[in-house]
Amino acid sequence: MAAGAAEAAVVAVEEVGSAGQFEELLRLKAKSLLVVHFWAPWAPQCAQMNEVMAELAKELPQVSFVKLEAEGVPEVSEKYEISSVPTFLFFKNSQKIDRLDGAHAPELTKKVQRHASSGSFPPSANEHLKEDLNLRLKKLTHAAPCMLFMKGTPQEPRCGFSKQMVEILHKHNVQFSSFDIFSDEEVRQGLKAYSNWPTYPQLYVSGELIGGLDIIKELEASEELDTICPKAPKLEERLKVLTNKASVMLFMKGNKQEAKCGFSKQILEILNSTGVEYETFDILEDEEVRQGLKAYSNWPTYPQLYVKGELVGGLDIVKELKENGELLPILRGEN
């Protein structure tokens, strides 16, 4: 019995190997919920999430589950802006309706169940979900001293109002983090009720709603904006501080616990083998650092390794230094 159930779960999670196959699947599964796992074979967290999907497939036979190797089908990954694994996209009627970045099994389960039921939870479950959502929104609005909830990202705003808001904040050198409401439909709808504000963008300082674009324009005109929002240090000063944050600093995709690209995974293995202590910075979490460090160090790719604020190099250089026996002395600051 158990073996048969496991076999059914394996069959339930399809593998997509091409962009054409993916588009065909969107058409075939248009009437049901389709969950797509963008994964990579080198990432252990993806294997764990594949197991979670297999369990969900057993519980929810009406939902279609698919896995797609992100680096193996790059045209699909680029179309949906997949920059790390694991990432899950949710489709209904051939349209993307939700997204989940990272290996969050409880959140994946919750999203699948919610979209599969289309609001058919009993009242007690709805109340519980609402309570969970409010806690999440409180955390998000407090995620940085100044938080902007917008359509798109500061680098690629996806509406004119969001674009204007970003331009005003940059003009006043405001230090802010952002959240793309297109990436999470639950947050997009929930925040309207949470803050009693029906439109986007929305700007928060210390977890308190300041307002939308019109309010920010008024604050700018009255010269109050500079007193309300925290100022950003100049990028070059920030990069200098970051590269000197620890004696050995690695700028990578992901972190020590969870590499999000093959090159970053390899360099972690090399550093771990030396026994030298080091800190990491996830460039996927900060687009300004990701782009700025390339110019600052005149080095176009990641990962990048620094010792005492000086660039050592990327994966190839670190491999060479290890082979030549020079890596350990450099990491210890002896060279």
Automatic annotation (TrEMBL):
Protein's cellular compartments: Cytoplasm, Cytosol; Cytoplasm, Myofibril, Sarcomere, Z line
Domain Thioredoxin per the UniProt entry, residue ranges: 1-117
Segments crossing the lipid bilayer: none
Molecular functions per Gene Ontology: identical protein binding; iron-sulfur cluster binding; metal ion binding
Superkingdom of source: Eukaryota
Entry keyword set: Cytoplasm, Iron, Iron-sulfur, Metal-binding, Repeat
Subunit-structure text: Homodimer; the homodimer is independent of 2Fe-2S clusters. Heterotrimer; forms a heterotrimeric complex composed by two BOLA2 molecules and one GLRX3 molecule; linked by [2Fe-2S] clusters. Interacts (via N-terminus) with PRKCQ/PKC-theta. Interacts (via C-terminus) with CSRP3. Interacts with CSRP2.
NCBIfam families referenced in this protein's UniProt entry, alphabetically: Grx4 family monothiol glutaredoxin
Name listed for the protein in its UniProt record: Glutaredoxin-3
Species in which this protein is naturally found: Pan troglodytes
